[in-house]
Structures are given as structure tokens and as C-alpha cells.
Amino acid sequence: MTAEKTRVLVVDDEEIVRESLGGWLAQDGLQVESAPDGPAAVERMKGEGKWSILLVDLKMPGMDGIQVLEEARRLQPDAAVVIMTAYATVDTAVAAIKRGAYDYLVKPFDPEELSLLIQKIVSQQQLVHENAVLRKALRREYDFHDVVSKSPAMRQVFELARVAAPSGSTVLILGESGTGKEVLARAIHEESPRKEAPFVAVSCAALSESLLESELFGHERGAFTGATARRKGKFEAAHGGTLFLDEIGDVSPKLQVDLLRVLEERKVQRVGGNEPVDVDVRIVAATNRDLRQAVAAGKFREDLFYRLNVISIQLPPLRDRKEDVPLLVERFLELLAVELGKPLTGVSAEALAALMAHAWPGNVRELRNVLERGAVVAQGSVVQLEDLGLKPTAPAAPGGKAVPPSLDEVERRHVIEVLSYTGGNVTQAARILRIDRVTLYNKMRRYQLRD
Amino acid sequence: MEAIGLWWIGEREESPGTMEHVRLHVARALALPALVLEGPERPTGTLDPRRQQHSSARILEWLLRARPEGRVLGVTDVDLFIPVLTFVFGEAQLGGRAAVVSTARLAEGAPRDPRVRVERLAKEAVHELGHALGLTHCPDIVCAMSRSASVRDVDRKAGVLCRDCRSRLRDSTSGAEGA
Fold first, then answer.
1. Is residue A90 part of a domain?
2. What is the span of the domain harbouring residue B84?
3. What is the ipTM metric for this complex?
4. Residues B55, B49: Cα–Cα separation, whole Å
5. Residue A362 structural domain
């Protein structure tokens, strides 16, 4: 049997049914709870973790079984929903199967039928669970420390980083903001023989020239007003380890000279000091600027550029590695679940389609922020499209009125809508759209709606 | 520990020797003393007029009233049901005092030898009393505590507890005495 008890929710307006069915299932070692009506059931689905099986009466006053089923598909997509019905309403129950119910049972049930159905669901869910465990193990293949990807471009990045890491050479990471330059820098550090020593990160754009200078090189007591004590700089702090210089493209000409000297001599001189201090530091620098262009424009020293550009790694923007969106979503939700203490299991099909379709100008960082918002707002264990608060990609015209979308945009949105309606089933979606499957696949590729 | 009371509460006369056979079987399988109760009272108000079957829950309630103390297993020949199921072989309060078991559905397949029916009854008696003693269903299909949803399931069972259920039962009965 499973270590974790299978959780069953019995939804029926008749107390006697809830009690007798609950008792019967509890004897099988299942953890049974019940709800007397649809709204109560929805509350339970929103609140507390995962349900494995929902036994839902079809005819209930107010919210009926089909409505509960629809909410369950949204809130607990992994739960098997079994519709309970009387003979008179078997047709409706059959229709419920088409809407995603697992099966239906006609009241009163034959004990053997109920028993077999529950056994079948439990063993299928065990298989699904085992698959998920295996998939997770396989996913480690897609990991390079905290960087997750299966896109070919990123695989190249991993390969290069793996080779570069142990060498101690200076690495220059290029990429738009939010592509994970610092995460990659940390991974390189972790993969290097320096991993036991500190990893120190400095953002060169955040500080004024003089502050950055004392931040990097440290200062002696009395070196300047306010320097009441001697302070070590980041170079010394990173001794034996890795110093990550973010936004290196923003460093002033004077500091460029200082940096170049430190890189060449492997010694730093504290501000206001005379004694050079030996430092053994591996430099990983990063920028979202085009450094070659900056060199050509005379804004960045050519000699420093070549000193930094020993091994350069280009991180692709998220829009060029859309196939990683589901992987990243899964990873971030795992982390957010722990961080927020919420039992998050995934995002709805609709939400995933929208995440895949988004352009991600802010890259992985933007994706993480969107998911964090969604995770905080989500009411159940599944993050819904509306939780994400994604802005539509169509630009707004002055005056606040949205510009009507292009024909392509309308088509893209409609394809997403139909696919989410069919739960991602392409054959069904093609039938609804009255186009053939290949055409739909082509459209999905065009709008980047699939791996 | 107080003996488990076994009580024939059927509509017809008990076939001779049935209760004694059940008693021997239960006492051996559960390793607890059991005795056959003699009492002329019979449950009333348990028949559902629409289904023409008896509510096992109401029989349990009746048993609790009729026997204010000690564990009791009612043995009957009326057809039992719970509202969501077409029938049940028996029912028990999980970890409670009362259990009931019926012969009504145990004749399926019309065994010529009446002993087959008595044998099935003894197994289901052990099963329901196991629930009353706090045991849930067992995944071992030959253990008396495995779920029987049909007589095929009943026939497959050995009528005794598997090792795991035996040790669980020992823990719970010794724990109850210690408490």
C-alpha cells in the first residue's frame, strides 16, 4: 500500500450517503472526508492539498455534480472524479465523462463494482506518481546546479561552463537582464575547485565610482571622511574564491584602469593604503551591454575587454528557449511551495499556454516574479491563469484604450483558448477548429505553443 | 478480556450447529474468548420498505441498545444494505462494540454442501469482528481482513488473519487492556 493515505472527498447532499460511503471507504484504509454541497466541496478543493478521488453526487440543489466536476478539473486536475447518479440521470453521467469525469456509478452500487473502481484508480495514481518520481530523476539531467534547461542553446552553455569552471580562467557572461547571469556565475563557482571558498557578488552599476572603488579594494582608516575603520574590499573577501562583477559594462574609465591593474598584478591596494595585498581571485564578469560596441565607441578599454573575454558565454533570452518554460515553472513552483508553505502542485493548462505564449522581455526573472505573484494569489494547489496577472501583449494606445489585436494575435489567442478547452488534446482541438492536425501543429509551432 | 458475544438474530431458526461453528472459528482466528448468546429478542424497524432489505446501520444501533456492554456480533439471515450499495455481507463499527453479518448473500452459486455457506459465514464473522477490534482492510488477498465484495472474494480467503493483522490485533487488544 502507499505510505501516504489516498484522500477521498465524498460530495453528496444526503448525510446517509456520506456516512455509509465514507465508512465503507475508510475500512479500505482511505482517508475520507465529505462535503454536503458543491460550494463546500469547492472550498475543500481550494484549501488543503491534494485530493486523489472525488465521489460526487450528480443531483444536488444549488451547484450540481457537473459544476463540481468543472471546478475539480481546474482546482484538482490530478483527482479522479467519479460521478454518482440514479438510474434516471445516467445520460447526464455519460456526458460528465466527456467533460473529464473518470467514471460514473449508478446508485446503489454493486460493492464489487465500487471496490474494483477504487482499486483501479489507486493503482493508476500510483503509476502516475512513480512516473513523476522518475521524471524528476531524469530532470536532473537538465540541471547545471541551479540552472534548469533542456534547450539546445542552453546545453551548449552548460557544456562550456563545465569546461571553463575548473580552469580558473576569467569568464565573461553576456545576456539580457533576467537571463540568469548571476545564477550561472554561482554554478561555475560551485563546479570549480574554489567552491569551498567564498563567492562574492558586486553590482558595478549600483554604486558611485568612489563607493565602488572602496567596495572593491577596501580602504584604510582615515582614507576619506567617514572611513572610521580599516575595511577589506570584495577582492580580499573573495580570496581563494570567485568574485562576480555584474554589469561590468557600467564601470567608469578610472576604475577600468584599476581593475585591469588588479587583474594583471593579482594584488590590490586599499584606498588610502600603500601596501599592496596579494589576492587569489577568480573573476566572473557579466553584462547586458554589447561590450565590443562599447570598445569600438571608446567607452570600454580594449585591454580590459580582452582580459575579461577569455571565455565568453552567451545566455539566450527566454523567448529563444520557450521549451524551458514548463521546466522552469515546475522548478519555481517547487521552490515557491516551500518558501510560501503552500501545497502548490502546478499551473492550469490555460495558464501554461499563456506562459508559453508570453514574450518575456524580463526573461527568467520576470517569469519567476509572475509565478511568485500567481503562487501568492492562488487559492488552491493549482495556479490559475487569472492568478498570474499577465499583461496582454498587445500595446496600449495613448488614452488607455487598447489597440485592437492583429489577425495573427486573434488567431494565436483562439488557438490557445481551444487547446486549453481540450486540455491540450491536439486532435480534438483540430476538430473544433475544423482544420487538420498538421495545420494545427504548424500554427502551434509558429506561435511557440509547444516544445 | 471479556468474551465476544455471538447472537443469532435471524428471522428463521438457526440451522443446527451454525453458531457453534462460528464461535469456534472466531475464537481461534482472533485468539479471544467467544460465547454464543441466547436471547429471543429480534431487531425491529430495520426493514426499508422500498428496498425490501434491512439497514445494517440500524441493526448495529439495535444491537448496541440490546446489549449495553461488551462486544457483540449479530448473525442474521436477512439481506443487509447500506444506502449507497446494493448489499453488504456485514457491517461493523470500526473500533466499536457492534458488528453484524448475514447469510443472505452467502448462498450465491448455490453450493450443495451447506457447510460451504457456514464456512463463508465464519470467515465474514471474523472479518466484521476484526473491524470492531479496530482492523481495517488488508491488501493480502487470503487474509480474513481483505475486502470481500463478492462470494468469490470470500472463497479466496483463508478465514484466518495474516501475520501483520495478527500483530496489529495483538497490539490493539493489549493496548486497550493497558489503558
1. yes
2. 4-178
3. 0.77
4. 11
5. 320-446
